[in-house]
């Protein structure tokens, strides 16, 4: 798999970018030139410093080092992305498997519930939920996950529907293997590939949605650093001092693009029709 | 003759759909002796696969078994509890399907899958089950069974996958194998190997096999006895020689006549007039009478009983009034144009 992955230069570049951002977020306290400013401590004396010199990416309206803020901001933005797709998959995959495996009225009820969720514009639903629950990191995450899980339920249901007709499932059922065990042993391992690909592709979108919610002030609250919040605070000064808005926007842009490119490549590599035996 | 391992008696299977009731199997009866290969032949839609599924009580709704008896080793399978059926399926009667790849789970090694089945049926430990699986892989002629054990289904060719499927049945102690068109998805050369394997296993393991196929060549090569099915009935039964190389039911004759002639180049294929009944309405009398070239008034009345033909240790029976007390068509002298050649053109013996 790695060999096929390596053949795609875009995916490799994307992976490098992601590793840089993830490592930067993880080791922000060590890497950031001004960790205490990254955490939110103002330094008004040095506000609006342009990039270069002591502050590589300049400083913001409270004089905080933008590079440190970006590194710390990655912690919340990236973790929202990862947690959202993980929670969405944890809710959606079992529901989809149950709906597809049993069919009938169970399938109908579950799929109509996903229809209800999918009929809302996702961003709007997430904003409404975040607003209703109050602005915080955890609530943002929950709100975005809630708009996301129906996609996983549908994906897994479709896969399960076709698996259900395969002889190995029927054979297992015919010798009295319980439904729960058939789903755990035969259905789930067969749907991991599409789910993993979907999760990678969704990571970018989840980060974007999380950032959007923070941008309108319903997500991560200042002084905690977050890319969406940084864009929100910086947009007032955009015309004369564009650097700290641009840095945060660029961070989001690069990360989301990288996740999408990697997701595409993984999908191609893992596709069983292109999978090659290397024994 | 010893007691049959499987006895199907007057089996009826119906399917309900929007158009009404489809009579897929209409009173099928046959029996299989231990260590015997019984071929069930017929064209698509004659009920042969449904009969196989019914033998394992695996007909799915909207289909159901409407009547009859299926005895396996003395137990009436239609009376058994679902729990006891679980043990029979795979543990007593194994089934192999047309497409081996769809029968194997792509995310586990074939050894792991076989191992699970052995442990379920025989309650062995992981290690014992492994030894048994490797042994079974060896028995079905898989080269290097240890390596095959750790292979994923997509590592194996279609023929090897089919061997694995057969090994799964063997390793769990099944003594009857139902093979539903086991070679249709395979190359002709592989097909010959698999059929050879089946005949070998019959000899070595005393495995009884119900071979379901539409390929008369396969039947001629492999089976001991044959049942010819038409519209959910058995219309003729006997040994391969009796059914394929002597005059019998007009339907069997028609099937044999429809085989392409390898000698006369460019000759038109013979066909059976009409088409297969859809099973929605039951045909009164003989099911074949609307298409039969020898149809008589009596054929439209009551369904014909089986008439015994010839003298032999094995009964050659035909459900056709032609062979009643007053056979209408006198036996004709054998000749090259009298009757289309059998699939294996050697030793055409005419008993009538």
Write a concise keyword list for the protein shown above.
heterodimer; A: 279 residues; mainly alpha; 0% strand; elongated; B: 352 residues; alpha/beta; 8-stranded mixed sheet; 4-stranded antiparallel sheet; globular; disordered C terminus
Description:
The complex is a heterodimer of chains A (279) and B (352). Chain A is mainly α and 279 residues long. Chain A contains twelve helices and no strands. Chain A has helices at 2-6, 9-26, 28-31, 35-38, 66-102, 104-119, 122-133, 137-164, 167-174, 179-215, 227-234, 243-270. The longest helix of chain A is centred in the N-terminal third of the chain and has 37 residues, at 66-102. The mean pLDDT of chain A is 86. Chain B starts with 5 loop residues before the first strand and ends in a 34-residue tail after the last strand. Chain B has helices at residues 48-55, 82-91, 100-103, 110-122, 126-139, 145-149, 158-171, 188-205, 216-222, 240-245, 250-257; strands at residues 6-17, 20-32, 37-41, 63-72, 75-76, 93-96, 176-180, 208-213, 225-230, 233-239, 307-309, 316-318. Chain B is globular. Chain B is α/β, with parallel strands linked by helices.
Count of separate DSSP helical elements of chain A? 12
Assembly classification: heterodimer
Strand order within the widest beta sheet of chain B: 6-7-8-3-9-10-12-11
Q: Helix coverage percent of residues of chain B?
A: 25-40%
Number of beta-strand segments of chain B: 12
Could you give the order of the helices and strands of chain A?
HHHHHHHHHHHH
Give the % helix of chain A: over 70%
């Amino acid at each position: 798999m790695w060999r096929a992955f390596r053949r795609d230069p875009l995916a490799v570049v994307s992976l490098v970018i992601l590793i840089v951002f993830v490592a930067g977020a993880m080791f922000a306290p060590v890497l950031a030139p001004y960790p205490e400013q990254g955490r939110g401590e103002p330094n008004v004396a040095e506000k609006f410093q342009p990039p270069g010199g002591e502050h590589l990416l300049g400083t913001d309206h409270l004089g905080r080092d933008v590079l440190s803020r970006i590194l710390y901001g990655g912690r919340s933005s990236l973790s929202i992305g990862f947690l959202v797709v993980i929670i969405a998959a944890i809710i959606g995959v079992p529901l989809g498997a149950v709906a597809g495996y049993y069919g009938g009225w169970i399938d109908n009820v579950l799929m109509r519930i996903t229809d209800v969720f999918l009929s809302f514009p996702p961003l709007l639903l997430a904003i409404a939920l975040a607003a209703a629950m109050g602005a915080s990191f955890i609530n943002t995450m929950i709100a975005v996950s809630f708009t996301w899980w129906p996609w996983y339920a549908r994906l897994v249901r479709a896969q399960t529907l076709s698996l259900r007709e395969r002889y190995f499932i029927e054979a297992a059922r015919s010798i009295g293997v319980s439904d729960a065990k058939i789903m755990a042993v035969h259905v789930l391992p067969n749907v991991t590939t599409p789910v993993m690909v979907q999760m990678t592709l969704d990571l970018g979108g989840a980060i974007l949605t999380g950032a959007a919610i923070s941008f309108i002030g319903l997500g991560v609250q200042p002084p905690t650093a977050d890319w969406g919040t940084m864009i929100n605070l910086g947009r007032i000064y955009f015309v004369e001092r564009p650097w700290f808005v641009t840095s945060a926007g660029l961070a989001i842009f690069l990360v989301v693009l990288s996740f999408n490119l990697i997701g595409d490549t993984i999908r191609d590599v893992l596709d069983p029709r292109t999978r090659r035996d290397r024994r | 003759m010893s007691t049959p391992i499987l006895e199907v008696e007057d089996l009826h299977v119906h399917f309900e759909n929007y158009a009404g009731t489809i009579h897929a199997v209409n009173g099928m009866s046959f029996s299989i002796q231990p260590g015997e290969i019984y071929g069930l032949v017929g064209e698509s839609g004659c009920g042969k696969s449904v009969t196989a599924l019914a033998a394992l009580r695996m007909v799915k709704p909207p289909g159901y078994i409407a009547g009859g008896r299926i005895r396996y080793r003395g137990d009436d399978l239609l009376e058994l509890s679902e729990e006891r059926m679980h043990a029979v399926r795979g543990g007593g009667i194994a089934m192999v399907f047309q497409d081996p790849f769809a029968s194997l789970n792509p995310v586990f090694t074939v050894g792991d899958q076989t191992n699970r089945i052995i442990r379920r049926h025989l309650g062995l430990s992981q290690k014992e089950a492994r030894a048994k699986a490797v042994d079974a892989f060896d028995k079905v002629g898989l080269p290097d069974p240890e390596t095959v054990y750790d292979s994923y289904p997509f590592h194996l060719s279609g023929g090897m996958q089919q061997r694995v499927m057969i090994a799964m049945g063997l390793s769990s102690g099944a003594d009857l194998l139902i093979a539903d068109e086991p070679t249709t998805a395979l190359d002709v050369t592989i097909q010959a190997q698999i059929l050879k394997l089946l005949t070998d296993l019959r000899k070595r393991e005393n495995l009884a096999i119900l071979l379901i196929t539409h390929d008369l060549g396969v039947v001629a090569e492999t089976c001991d006895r044959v049942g010819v099915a038409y519209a959910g009935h058995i219309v003729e039964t006997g040994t391969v020689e009796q059914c394929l190389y002597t005059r019998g039911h007009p339907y069997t004759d028609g099937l044999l006549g429809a085989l392409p002639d390898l000698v006369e180049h460019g000759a038109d294929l013979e066909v059976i007039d009409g088409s297969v009944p859809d099973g929605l309405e039951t045909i009164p009398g003989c099911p074949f009478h609307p298409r039969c070239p020898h149809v008589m008034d009596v054929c439209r009345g009551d369904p014909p009983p089986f008439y015994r033909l010839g003298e032999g240790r094995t009964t050659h029976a035909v459900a056709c009034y032609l062979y009643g007390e007053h056979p209408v068509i006198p036996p004709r002298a054998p000749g090259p144009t009298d009757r289309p050649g059998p699939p294996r053109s050697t030793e055409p013996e005419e008993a009538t």
